[in-house]
Design a protein that fits this description.
Beta-Lactamase; 5 domains; 5-stranded antiparallel beta sheet; 18 helices; 17 strands; elongated
């Protein structure tokens, strides 16, 4: 409306200007007539001057609003322009020139701002494309915690777990997350809102949703001035990772228990890696080797107990090439006896196999059989015709069982399993519920009809004890030791089982035979009959008192025919004498 009014006023002014021009034209004609004597050109010039002079005030009055408008435009462009493009208030001649100068500067400023805006848009698009392509699950929310963005990876994650999430959050809809409030992830959002409100640095939290464990890494979004403009959340599905970590922790704990059990078992255990380098030796083995170190050095001068771990197993052999050939292709348990110094060492060697069936090392059970060998030889001397005695004194591989603090059996090695399986039917005559396949997971009470007494002993166990238990017809010897950790805290119990049934019978027979033999020898020794015995080679090995007395009294007489006859040398001489 205002513009229309201005147009009408301008039209009136132009009309007045036209009327004035017409009047001036009449004056000019009169002037030309008056000064015709001056010539045509002079007259025309004079007329033009008169017209211009007459119109100047009018034109100036008419253009005053336009000049005022141009000055306003200059001031406005000064306000819009930047000092980098032109100094505010500068001019190029008149008002129109000033407007033109500012328009040119404004154009430069606009073009520069446009380029900067385009660069920012390109950068934003690149940033957005990067977020869309990353494998990280990204979500953003504004200051009111309304989700404003979620990349493709996060969308796929929530979509894949949507049904699972709904078991905890019935209204959860992955397709409606953008636009929803972040409170949707929490049953009780008040606590989280309190944390997010004062968020100034990155925080992490694990949130169980359904069967999934989701980790949220939450950070504030701030602009260049440090003003917070929103929140960014990185989501990680830690369900499988957590399960693996818990499994690894359980395995580590179980491994530590087994190692502690092996460390404190009475069996002498040594382990080596795939290259046969010794990497473990339990306390019993260390003590056994240390007790025999000086004796071993008679055959192996470089043998040093403190250097065994880290050394190659070749240290036990003068010429290891043969043993290396055997151990290199070891696929099952083998046994060998090695004479080192004066000690007879039995090595029970087995491959260590992982769950995939791959060999990862070697385990050696060492038994110092020196005393056992002497006992076997004594038994052979008492009953040379009986090979049963020797077999009875030979001991098989150790049968190991472990239990936790509640005396629940959590481990049983192959040897123990085989031993119990072989005697299962016999054991069931005393323990009807005894089942080998159910031992692991059962309480150690299964071995006792009335376990209260044993529980009292095992509950306060602080050192190794031994006990013999009659189960069915079997005599079982249990060597029981507490398992303690590095801090000295008890973590379980290890039991070494030995089936002493045959050994006990053999020992009783040997004792009976020895007693009987001693009785016979004493009877023959004191008999009045002159008795002499010789072995199969006719070497005299026995002569009783009566015979010795008789030969001594006739020794001088015998020498007349047998010059070399000597009573004191008869035992050990051939009967040819």
């Amino acid at each position: 409306m205002e513009n229309n009014t201005q147009d009408v006023a301008l039209s009136k002014k132009i009309t007045l200007l036209a009327v004035g021009a017409s009047g001036l034209a009449l004056i000019v004609v009169a002037a030309v007539s008056s000064f015709s004597s001056l010539g045509l050109n002079a007259a025309l010039i004079l007329a033009a001057v008169v017209c211009v002079a007459a119109l100047v005030p009018t034109v100036k009055a008419m253009l005053a609003p336009t000049v005022e408008a141009l000055n306003s435009a200059v001031n406005m462009l000064d306000e819009l322009g930047t000092r980098e493009d032109f100094p505010a208030g500068s001019a190029e001649g008149d008002e129109a020139g000033s407007v033109l100068a500012r328009l040119k500067a404004f154009k430069r400023s606009y073009e520069r701002n446009t380029q900067e805006s385009l660069a920012k848009v390109a950068e934003s698009e690149q940033f957005h494309a990067g977020l869309e392509q990353t494998s990280t699950n990204i979500m953003m929310a504004d200051l009111d915690y309304n989700i404003t963005y979620m990349n493709k990876t996060a969308t796929a994650l929530f979509k894949a777990n949507e049904a699972d999430f709904r078991t905890s959050l019935p209204k959860f809809d992955a397709s409606k997350l953008v636009g929803a409030n972040i409170d949707i992830f929490h049953k009780d959002a008040a606590h989280q809102r309190g944390i997010l409100k004062h968020l100034s640095a990155t925080i992490e939290t694990d949130i169980p949703i359904g069967t999934r464990l989701m980790r949220a890494i939450v950070s504030p979004i701030t602009d260049s001035s440090g003003q917070r403009t929103g929140t960014i959340v990185e989501w990680i599905d830690r369900t499988d990772i957590q399960a693996q970590e818990e499994e690894a922790a359980t395995l580590a704990s179980s491994s530590a228990t087994y190692q502690a059990g092996l460390l404190q078992a009475s069996t002498n255990l040594m382990m080596a890696d795939i290259d046969l380098t010794i990497n473990y030796m339990n306390t019993a083995a260390t003590a056994m080797f240390r007790a025999n170190e000086a004796d071993f050095q008679a055959d192996l001068p470089n043998f040093a107990v403190d250097k065994l771990v880290g050394s190659n197993i070749d240290v036990f052999h003068k010429d290891p090439s043969h043993q290396r050939g055997i151990l290199g292709s070891l696929s099952s348990t083998i046994e060998a006896e090695i004479l080192i110094g004066t000690r007879i060492m039995k090595a029970i060697v087995s491959p260590i196999i992982d769950e995939q069936g791959k060999r990862t090392g070697t385990v050696v059970e060492w038994v110092d059989r020196t005393e056992a060998e002497l006992q076997e030889r004594e038994a052979q001397a008492l009953a040379a015709s009986s090979a049963t005695y020797q077999a009875g004194l030979l001991q098989a591989s150790t049968n190991l069982m472990m239990a936790d603090l509640d005396l629940t059996i959590n481990y049983m090695n192959t040897a123990a399993t085989a031993m119990f399986r072989a005697n299962e039917a016999d054991f069931q005559s005393d323990l009807p519920n005894f089942k080998v396949d159910e031992l692991v997971g059962s309480n150690i009470d299964v071995f006792h009809k009335d376990p209260s007494h044993q529980r009292g002993i095992l509950g306060s166990l602080s050192s190794t004890i031994e006990a013999e238990i009659l189960i069915g017809r079997r005599i079982m010897k249990a060597t029981v030791s507490p398992i303690t950790d590095a801090a000295g805290k008890r973590t379980g119990t290890v039991v070494e089982w030995v089936d002493r049934t045959e050994a006990e019978l053999q020992e009783r027979e040997a004792q009976a035979l020895a007693a009987s033999s001693a009785t016979y020898q004493a009877g023959l020794l004191q008999a009045s009959t002159n008795l002499m015995m010789a072995d199969i080679d006719l070497t005299i090995n026995y002569m009783n008192t009566a015979a010795t007395t008789m030969f001594r009294s006739n020794e001088a007489d015998f020498k007349t025919s047998l010059p070399n006859f000597a009573v004191d040398k008869l035992v050990g001489s051939n009967i040819d004498v």
